[in-house]
Design a protein that fits this description.
alpha+beta; globular; disordered C terminus
Length: 199
């Protein structure tokens, strides 16, 4: 009888331990961008360590890095999300990582992004709304609304054949001043004017 009771006790302890481990499992965290080294898992351009960078963390722990949220979208369209543990985007103003499902997005075909998808991410909805109001253009979407986005790309900028940006595909080579049509450009910390390429 004592052995049976001891066995039952051990079984109960094991079950509780498994529950604790399961509940205490850490969320998949974003991985730092190694600028000049990391390349987009879709378009193979270098990923700038700026607000445009996005990541998918797979359930096996592997981090997939993208230079534009449009590339992240393309990957999920091709591979699905069954093996995805978490998707991360970066705040336009601070470049802080935030879960894609909790972010707010601003889109306009004239917003400059590495692959010309024209979508910026914001941690706070109010900041996204403020940005659109200041730019006098753009539409606001949440993660659910982004699912219905058309994912059109602006085709107005040239591409260098070496696969690098023709206008500074890094956060350290930001452009300043207005855009070609005279409208106000984004702040210096979010105004890289990269080129696009064909996937």
């Amino acid at each position: 009888m004592k052995l049976k009771k001891w066995g039952a006790t051990l079984g109960a302890i094991a079950s509780i331990s498994l529950l604790i481990v399961g509940c205490g499992k850490e969320e998949a965290q974003p991985v730092e961008i190694a600028e000049g080294v990391d390349k987009c898992d879709v378009c193979h351009m270098h990923v700038p360590n700026d607000h445009n960078a996005t990541e998918i963390i797979l359930k096996n722990g592997k981090a997939l890095k993208f230079d534009d949220i449009g590339c992240l979208h393309e990957w999920t369209e091709q591979h699905g999300t069954d093996e995805v543990a978490m998707q991360y985007v970066r705040d336009y103003y601070t470049a802080e990582w935030t879960k894609a499902e909790q972010a707010t997005f601003a889109y306009d075909k004239e917003f400059k992004t590495p692959m010309s998808y024209g979508i910026y991410s914001f941690k706070d909805k109010a900041e996204a709304e403020k940005f659109v109001a200041e730019q006098k253009k753009g539409v606001i979407m949440d993660a659910e609304g982004l699912k219905n986005h058309t994912w059109e790309r602006s085709m107005s900028e040239p591409m260098k054949k070496d696969g690098n940006s023709s206008e500074g595909h890094s956060s350290g080579e930001q452009q300043s001043g207005g855009s070609e049509n005279g409208t106000q450009s984004a702040p210096s910390h979010g105004s890289s004017t990269p080129t696009k390429t064909h996937h």
